[in-house]
Amino acid sequence: MFLDVRDLTITLKTGEEIAKDISFSIDGGEMLSIVGSSGAGKTTVCKAVMGLLSSNYSISGEVLYRGENLLHCSKKRLQAIYGKEICYIMQNPMTAFNPSLRIGRQLEKTCYLHNPQISRQELQLLVSNTLQQLGLDDLKRILKSYPDALSGGMLQRIMIAAALINQPTILVADEATTAIDACNRIELMQLLRQLCSGGMAILFVTHDLRAASMADRILIMNDGQLVEAGTTEQIFNEPKEEYTKYLLSACTLERR
C-alpha cells in the first residue's frame, strides 16, 4: 500500500477539531478523491499528509507511506520524501511559482534539489520530456517565460510538470481544477487518469463531484468527518447519505 491514513485527527491548539478519525488508503495505479464543500476539512487533511500544517495544529493517528509513519519521521527523512516521492499540486498555480524567475529555471531547480548529481544535459532533457508528456510543445517560449505571461491552464500543467519531474509515487492534488475553465478541467482530469494508468497513486481533493467522477473511489467529507465512502459508481448511482445526495443535486442544478 502506497499511502495508508489511519484514525487521523487534527485539532487546533484552541481545542477545535478540524478533522476526526479520518481513515483511507490508496495504492499504485489508483485515484482516490475526497469530496466536500468549503470548510469540510479536506484541505487540512491534505496538508497533514504533506506535513504542511503549522504548529497551531496537533495531529494524532498515523500517516503511513509504504509502512513508514510520516508523523514520526525525522526532518531529514521527510525532506527526502516530500517533493521527491510524494508531491503536491496546489489550488492556485500563480502562487506556486516565483514571479521573478523564468519557468525553465524554476523547473530545473525543482529537479536539481532532489537530484544534485544530474548533469546539465540530463536536466534539460528531463525538463523538456516532462513538459511534452503534459502536452506542452512550445518549449522554447514556455521555458523562457515568466509565470504571469502564461495562461492559468498552461500554468496548471506546468505545476503538474514540476511535481512529476522527480517521478513521484504519490501525487496529492488539492482543488487542482478550481482555477481553470471547464475545457481545461476535463483535460486535466484525463491527464491525471493517464498518470494513474502508469502506476502512480493520486489523491484528488475537490468540492466538485463532477471533477471527481474520473476517480476510482470517492470519500465524502463534511464537518471534519468522512460521512460516506464507495466506488465512484456507488456514490453516483446509490448514494446513502443525505449530504452526498445534496452534493449530487448541486451538480445536476449546475448542469442545467
UniProtKB/TrEMBL annotation:
Compartment annotation: Cell membrane
Taxonomy, superkingdom: Bacteria
Family indicated by similarity: Belongs to the ABC transporter superfamily.
UniProt entry keywords in alphabetical sequence: ATP-binding, Cell membrane, Membrane, Nucleotide-binding, Transport
Organism: Oscillibacter hominis
UniProt GO cellular component terms: plasma membrane
PANTHER family: DIPEPTIDE TRANSPORT ATP-BINDING PROTEIN DPPD, OLIGOPEPTIDE TRANSPORT ATP-BINDING PROTEIN APPD
Membrane-protein topology: Peripheral membrane protein
One MF term in the entry's GO annotations: ATP binding
Keyword Metal-binding: no
Annotated protein name in UniProt: ABC transporter ATP-binding protein
CDD domains: ABC_NikE_OppD_transporters (cd03257)
ABC transporter domain segment(s): 3-248
Record Gene3D superfamilies: P-loop containing nucleotide triphosphate hydrolases
